[in-house]
What we know:
Blueprint: H1 5-36, H2 42-72, H3 85-112, H4 117-143, H5 147-152, H6 154-186, H7 194-228, H8 247-276
Helix pairs in contact: 1-2, 1-8, 2-3, 2-8, 3-4, 3-6, 3-8, 4-6, 6-7, 7-8
Amino acid sequence: MENPAEPVMGGLLIELFFAFILYGITTLQTFMFFQKYREDRLALKALVIAVWVLESVHTAFCMQFMYDYLIAGFGDFANFLNISWGIGITVLCSAGIALCVQGYYTWRVWVVSGRSIFWTVVIGFFALLRVAFGIASAVLAYEYPQWLTFRHTKKSLVTISGGLGSAALVDILVALTLTYYLKRGRNIWQRESNSMINRILLYSVNTGAITGTASLLCVILVRILHHRGMFPHYMTTQFAVKKSSLVFLGLVMIQAKLYANSLLGSLNARAHIRNKGSRPTYSTGSSSGFRVTSPRIPVVEVFQQTVTQDDRDLPPDEEPGDFDLKNLKGNELA
């Protein structure tokens, strides 16, 4: 008899291993942030702490529901059909992490775009929509506590697909908006700043591409499982699943870790980008989002004086090596 746990939980377990590794990276980046940027504003430090706390709670409940399925419910294969109560909490934590991270990216668009109300409102709207869909999905997980019932509920498909689709759209809009305004600013600022702007562009696009790709994969898997069924060979006493059924859940857990690491990575990369840059430095004080200033370079002046003297011209009572500054050219040092 085929082991039902392997096709149902195998893929999810492996994905959670990767999620836990990403949590370790999140913790490391949080430590690095407070070591390197002690002078940052209190609001930014509070944001980092909030993301790390949500990540910790998220990771703890990922462990809880896997323990519930594989240890507490060992041998009870029908337990795989139940939605563990910890899953709803992880969905709420994911929504909170997305709100913090995408809220920060929305603020970044506001600054870089020169306080563009249109793009800030559009991106902020879809970011809040993603959070609303996430909360609704968590509520439905408690309202329909079985995967089969949950899957056949159209509301669950709308909330999950809508939440993940909104997250992907926000990532794409943020990447495109930052790319547009940074490239436009590159034509205005000094030529020496182009290499730094290119690095900022590359980093912005890459971070948005990673999280956006994870969201799109989740949407695709949810749609496939909705049409094909999560447990196609289920029976009341025993069942076997030939297709991975909860893989999408593992990707949703990984997505939350990717969001946290993208935020912390962008914050910790500031010193690296500055050090790699040339003379110009950047801050968020002007209407375009960046202010270019050239640091003052100390100037060292070197004076050279060459004195040639013939011993034959010296008076008899003066020893060689005694020089009178008045005899030098110009009666003073040049």
